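REQUEST FORM: STRUCTURE PREDICTION
Request ID: SP-0412
Submitted by: Lab K.M.
Chain count: 1
Length (residues): 320
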Amino acid sequence: MDIFGLILWPIKWLVELVLVAFHWLFTNIGMDSNAGATWVLAIVGLVIVVRAALIPVFVRQIRSQRKMLEIAPELKKIQDKYKGKRDQYSRENMSRETMALYSKHGTNPLSSCLPILLQMPIFFALFSVLNEAQKGNPGVGPLNAQLATSFADASVFGVAPLHASFQSAMAENPVNVTVMIIAATLVVIMTASQFITQLQIMSKNMSEETKASPQFRQQRILLYILPLVFAVSGFAFPLGVMTYWLVSNIWTMGQQFVVIRNMPTPGSQAAKAREERLARRGKSSAAISEEAPAIEQPAQRQQPLSKSRAKKQTGKKNSK
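STATUS: Completed
RESULT:
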C-alpha cells in the first residue's frame, strides 16, 4: 500500500461505514437493497453527514473572511511600505510583519480553502471505493463483496450503473447513449450549481472596495475557468461520485444563501438588502444595537473605616 492509500484507508473505512449504515436503514424501511435509489439515498446520507460535520469549519471560514476584511487596510499599509523594494531584507520584513498581523487577529488567508481541502480526501476515498466496487472487490471496511457488487450494479433510473461514466459509456460497443445522456446531464447540473454558488458570493456578498481590487478581477476569471475544469473532468467520474458532488453543491448553495441573507459582508449588496428588510420591519442594525439593554455599573462598595480614621474625618468636617 502506497502512502496515498495509507492516508485514505481510514477515510475509506468511514465512507463505507456511512454508506452501509444508510443502505441498511433504507433497506429496513422496505426499499430494495439492490435498487439504485437505495444506494443514491445512501450517498445523499453520506453528504449530509460530511457537510454537517464541516459546519464548524465553515463558520470558522466565515469569521476568518470577516477578519481578513477588517485587516485589509493594515495589510495594504504593509504592502505600500515595502512597495518597489525587492531586496531580501525587505521581503523578509514584509513577510514577518504580514504573518504577525495575521497572528494578532487570529486569521489566515488559507482558512477559506479549508472546507474544500477537507472534502477532497472524502471525494477521493469515495472515488476509490466506487472503482473497487465496480470490479466486485470488497472494501477495506463494512462494504463486503456482496454489498460492493450490489453497489456497482445498482442503476440510476434502472439503466445507468453507478460505476459507469460518460467516458466508459462512450468506450462500450455499441456506445451506451442512455448512460452518456444521464452522465452529461449530471455534469451540466453539477457545473451550473458550482458556478451559481460562486457567482452569488461574488455578486452579492463582496463590498465595492473588494470588487475594485486586482484580486477580485483574478477571482472573476477563475469563476469562469474552474467550472470548465470541473465539467471536463466530470466526464471521467462515475455516476456515484457525481451524485455525491451534485448533492454537496446543492448543500453549499443553500448554506451560502442562508449566510449571505443573514450574515452578509459589511458594505456588500447583500448587506444593503438586509438593511432594507430590517427597515421595512421598522428596525435597522443600528436600532437593534441601540435596543440592547444598558448594563448597569455596579455601585462601588464603600470600604469600612477604622475608628481612628472615622474620628479624623469627623474632626475635619467639624473644623469646616
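NOTES: The first strand starts at residue 155 and ends at 156.
Reviewed by: T.R.
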